[in-house]
Amino acid sequence: MSQDNLFNYNHFKFVRLAIFLVLACVLAYLVYTPEIVSYGGTWLGYGLGTLGALLIVWLMWLGVRKRQYAKNSGNLRGWVSAHVYLGMALAFVATLHTGFQIGWNVHTLAYVLMILVILSGMWGLSLYVRMPQLMSNTLNRKSPGAIVEEIESLDKEALKLVKTFQSESLVHLIKRSMSQGIFNASRQRKFGLVRNCETSKACDVIQKKMHENGNLIGLYENQIKRLKSLKQLRLYYCQKYWLEVWLLFHVPLSFALLAALIAHVVSVFYYW
Predict the structure, then answer these.
(1) Alpha carbon of 164 to those of 133, 170, 204, 215, 266: distances in Å?
(2) Are residues 168 and 149 in contact, defined by beta-carbon separation less than 8 angstroms?
(3) Same domain, 19 and 134
(4) Same domain assignment for residues 152 and 42
(5) Taking the mean position of all CA atoms in its chain, how far away is CA 87?
(6) Tens digits of residue pLDDT in 2-33
């Protein structure tokens, strides 16, 4: 038995609904014969436009719904499934509403913004499908908190090891390594890389000193483990960054679409 997810939710309930919606609109478009040409100002155009506007408002409501887990407004997974498939169906409904009449006006602006919102939503969907598994594999199925605890444990071990060598330079080196956080600046999350990483420097210095003192191997292995844990967290937060960054496009575009939609509707009825 396949697991119920947002793609096959309730036996592809919203896939079937989206297909039915698209086919019904296409059939209506093919059957209806306007007096001049097909465009948004025909009776069919008004009907498709109303349907499209209602879909846009409903789809935007998902952002509110995601923050209402305690309310009985339907299964959240079902809402997301509906958001995905009905959002794709909206592209067909809105295109038929235009009657393929495109120009330099607020009506086309609303249409273009809608397409951009749908495309950004598909981008976000692809990220949400791939990234969680990648993020889990990056941390070897551990939590970020567990990795941080491992680093703290390694730091305590490093302090004990370095004291046995009675070297101020080594103590200073290890303390600088311990002060190294995941990132030196928030902008480094984009690429998951840190220049001038103190732990990486410590690994290089200790490796060179090992030629003179083979007893440093335990301290070297300790710092290598610390660096590995840091790299895990850096890659994880880099992946998380790109998982979240699409919202910086999707949400503002959605509100721009809503504003353009209102302007579109007002102008239509003003000049009707």
Answers:
(1) 42, 10, 20, 10, 79
(2) no
(3) yes
(4) no
(5) 17
(6) 556 777 777 888 899 999 999 999 998 888 77
pLDDT at position 70, please?
44
| In-domain check, residue 2 | no
Q: Are residues 35 and 94 in the same domain?
A: yes
Measured CA to CA, the distance from residue 90 to residue 232 in angstroms comes to 40
Domain count within the chain? 2
pLDDT beyond 70 at 69:
no
Q: How many CA atoms lie within 13 A of 70 on its CB side?
A: 0
What Cα–Cα distance (Å) separates residue 58 from each residue in 86, 104, 153?
10, 27, 50
Q: Which residue has the higher pLDDT, 257 or 211?
A: 257
Residues 224 and 199 occupy one common structural domain: yes
For residue 70, give both structure tokens: 């305690």
Q: Which domain holds residue 27?
A: 9-139+246-270
Q: What is the rounded distance in angstroms from the CA atom of residue 143 to the CA atom of residue 233?
A: 10
Output the CA–CA distances (angstroms, integers) from residue 20 to 12, 117, 150, in the order listed.
12, 22, 53
254/226 same-domain check: no
Q: What mean pLDDT do residues 217-237 have?
A: 95
